[in-house]
């Protein structure tokens, strides 16, 4: 779905990504690489293919939009170095000409040397572009003249059908004060969003992005 926000065209993709055509920038949030491996190390039986699946979806997005820049808006990594991070390092070799930016989130705790070794450009607490300011946790935004685009809370929306069935989907939230991107990783929970007047919510359904 294509929308206009603050005078710029934005594409909301059903794979939980945001594309800014004017800037050739693809943005996602809450990739949480390493989360499944971290759980397995703790003895929790989690499939080992979660990270590979998320990276495959990201590859499809890169092939679709051919961005110059990939921005990860916080929580790229869930914990520390583990086998999921090794998978990422292998995956990244396909995209050596892609600028990779990370706005650090609360889970991004690797060392500066780790980020440098993976050629990840770090921005903290935000990365601003045009009328937008990408920041992991919107309330921390200090640039009041720009519109914050955040992540962090893994937003979701509940849709009630005619037969009173309730379905919960990840969503894009464009509020009066800031926006929130859906969590990119499929291995995350959802926090229900309740919009105020003149705020917009776009549900990410299995086949499309729908305004609700």
Main features:
212 residues; alpha/beta; Purple Acid Phosphatase, chain A, domain 2; 9-stranded mixed beta sheet; 16 strands; 18% helix
Model description:
- By secondary structure, the protein is of the alpha/beta class.
- It has a single domain (2-211), classed as Purple Acid Phosphatase, chain A, domain 2, CATH 3.60.21.
- The protein is built from 4 helices and 16 strands.
- The protein has helices at residues 35-41, 50-65, 83-92, 112-117; strands at 2-5, 8-13, 17-20, 25-28, 69-72, 99-103, 121-123, 126-129, 132-135, 147-150, 155-160, 166-174, 179-180, 191-192, 200-204, 209-211.
- The strands form 2 sheets. Strands 8, 9, 10, 11, 12, 13, 14, 15 and 16 form a 9-stranded mixed β-sheet that branches. Strands 1-2-3-4-5-6-7 form a 7-stranded mixed β-sheet, with helices on one face.
- Strand 11 and strand 12 (166-174) form a beta hairpin.
- The radius of gyration is 17 Å and the shape is globular.
- The protein starts with a strand and ends with a strand.
- The model has no long low-confidence stretch (mean pLDDT 88).
């Amino acid at each position: 779905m294509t929308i206009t926000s603050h005078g710029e065209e934005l594409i909301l993709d059903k794979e939980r990504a945001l594309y800014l055509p004017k800037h050739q920038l693809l943005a996602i949030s809450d990739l949480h690489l390493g989360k499944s491996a971290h759980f397995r190390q703790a003895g929790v039986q989690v499939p080992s293919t979660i990270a590979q699946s998320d990276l495959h979806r990201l590859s499809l997005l890169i092939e679709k939009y051919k961005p110059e820049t990939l921005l990860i808006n916080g929580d790229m990594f869930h914990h520390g170095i583990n086998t999921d991070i090794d998978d990422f390092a292998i995956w990244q070799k396909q995209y050596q000409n892609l600028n990779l930016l990370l706005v650090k989130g609360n889970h991004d705790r690797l060392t500066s040397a780790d980020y440098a070794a993976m050629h990840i450009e770090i921005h903290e607490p935000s990365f601003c572009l045009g009328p937008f300011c990408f920041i992991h946790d919107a309330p921390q935004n200090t640039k009041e003249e720009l519109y914050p685009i955040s992540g962090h809370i893994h937003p979701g929306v509940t849709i009630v059908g005619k037969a009173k069935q309730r379905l919960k989907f990840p969503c894009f939230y464009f509020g009066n004060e800031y926006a929130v991107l859906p969590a990119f990783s499929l291995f995350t929970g959802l926090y229900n969003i309740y919009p105020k007047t003149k705020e917009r919510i776009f549900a990410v359904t299995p086949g499309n992005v729908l305004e609700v």
